[in-house]
Amino acid sequence: MTKSAFDGAFDGLDRAILEELQVNGRISVADLARKIYLSPPAVYQRIKRLEHAGLIRQYVALLDYEKAGYDLLCFIRISLQQQNRDQMVHIQTRLAEHSDVLECYHTAGSYDLLLKVLTADHRSLERFISDHLMTLPGIEKIETSVVLNEIKTTTAVALK
User: Can you spell out the DSSP letters for 56-103?
Assistant: First the structure.
């Protein structure tokens, strides 16, 4: 079982800070301090400690895919012909470099890799598969599922 950072050095105020920052990463230190009834310098120090501890990896803006010109979100499952460490590293490196790949996971089970891919349209997806995935050595099977509707999407992590 993975140990939670909250088992030791972090407390309920740290949890409140993290929960608020997950909802609104642009909240000012002063506004956050008012919300959790703590002084701004104390909140600032806690945020810096959480960043330093690696609990806060980065701050980002989440874009609306369609307004950014993308209309096709899909998940692609890939099976490799054989599990070879060098080949896996090569494939993972190539996939990580491609801007259409939002997320890439090495998985257990029927497939070796799971990709979350965002493209402008079905033609772009076809080009991505034929020009990039099918040219990778060692690919045995590619299976694509197109997302019809996002039912739930979040970046917020429930804190233990």
Answer: -----PPPPTTTTT--EEEEEEEEESS--HHHHHHHHHHHHH-TTEEE
